[in-house]
Amino acid sequence: MCVPTGKTVVLVLQGERWLRQGHDVHVLSTMHTTRAVSTSITQQLKMSLSAGPTPFLTPGSMSHHQYDFLNREEDVEQAVTDLVACMKNGHLYVLLDEAFFDSS
User: Fold this and answer.
1) Average pLDDT, stretch 21-49?
2) How far apart are CA 100 and CA 89, in angstroms?
3) What is the residue extent of each domain of the chain?
């Protein structure tokens, strides 16, 4: 059986909170090997938007961004460019369930 870790559950709950508050939420995947986790978070948030005891009155929107920092150096700069463009009033709401480590 595969279940989300506690950290992933907390990220989904925080994403739901931000969406309820009307914020746009950006789910990021920075490595090819962890796309399944970010996709799962995205799917759970989509279900939250459409279901539940009280539908959101004015929910924010959600975007899923996929990059490959390990194999494509240009993706790092592209991610920064993309996210800066997504900022609203100096705020950005990002969910990232992975750690990028470069030992070099």
Assistant:
1) 90
2) 28
3) 6-96
